[in-house]
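Quarterly update from the structural biology core.
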Amino acid sequence: MPKLTWAPFFHLYQPPHWDAVMIEKIARESYRPLLQLLKDHPTVKCSVNVTGSLTEQLFHLGMVDILHDLRTLASLGQIEFLGTAMYHPILAKLPDHEIVRQIELNVHMNRRVFGKAYDPRGFWIPELCYSTRVATIIRDFGFHWIVLDPICLTAPLPSTPTRAMITGVGLDVLFRNRAASDAFFSPAMKGAKDFSDILAANHDAARYPLVTAMDGENIGHHRPELVAIFREILETSNATFVTGSECIRAFQRVEEIDVRAGSWASRPEHVDRGVPYILWDDPENPIHVRQWKLLHFVETTVETLHDDPQYEKSRTALDECMMSDQFWWASAKPWWSADVVKTLTRRLVAVIENLSTAAPVISRTAHTLESEIYTLVGTWDTNGKAASIRSRYLSTDSTPRFMSGHAIH
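Predicted structure, tokenized:
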């Protein structure tokens, strides 16, 4: 592997109220092995985004060893924590006050558990779904930089190492190397030599540091063999490992750049036609349309009923229901689960059912949307439409995907 500066990013998340057996499995296969790799290689630095949703569940499930290791590594300066949104929503689809609330909830949870070790300067936007409005709120909250996918670039990065600052926003930004990051999905990467070949074809070390950003669960859970492969990469690399903030500080030049809306799953044709978050917000997907209509309806309702005896309970349930998962599993690109979509829709409607002062017409509207979603999901499941969309999507994208150790075909 050539000499380079490498800033690895790991995103750790599980949806609220997720299956405890599954979280324990992921902890055993991924979180503990990844942390052990870091402890075994103290010169390897990285940036870690732990959502408050996961922190909360690890705490309640008694997995305090994972939380302790994260806190210790952060205190030693080996990892840098990032800020994020508590329950992993698509922030660009939420009103400003809900974005602020999700950030505040996350800060509160992680500072409660990690103490002074949790002092993030950088921010991880869920699914790297960028919008200028979201970036402005992040800046105003006191964060200094974000990480994005290069799909958001409107022009190539400068030819010399340059700290990129978003025009009109003032946030610094690091761009992940998509090919190098996605290599950790690929069955073609069987060892350090393969990773070195990928870098040779897709990375200019003299122009920009290597920034990889991926789900931490890829290491060991989605791809069990990656624990050994990543260990080999670490032990044979000629890299200087840095945190995100260290990477930012190393640049001598600063240049403003323009960025556009996009995500780490966006394709150029989607961004070009104004659908930057297609896996979560596809205007041609009638399930997505009704899901967002229902979420916004429930949010507006809850915010108008502050005096309801069940307001606090419903408000907390609403926070949790803003997770991105319900939309992702309804995309069929390629992710599809009728059970997950229906379960999370039911949970969202229950927020209104718990409000004792909600007018009957409000309940009827929520139940009508729920029924429409259920009908569409059932139809897509039985008439093969979900399978057809999934097949077409996979046929036009060779990116390998894994879920719980199984390849997605």
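The mean pLDDT is 95.
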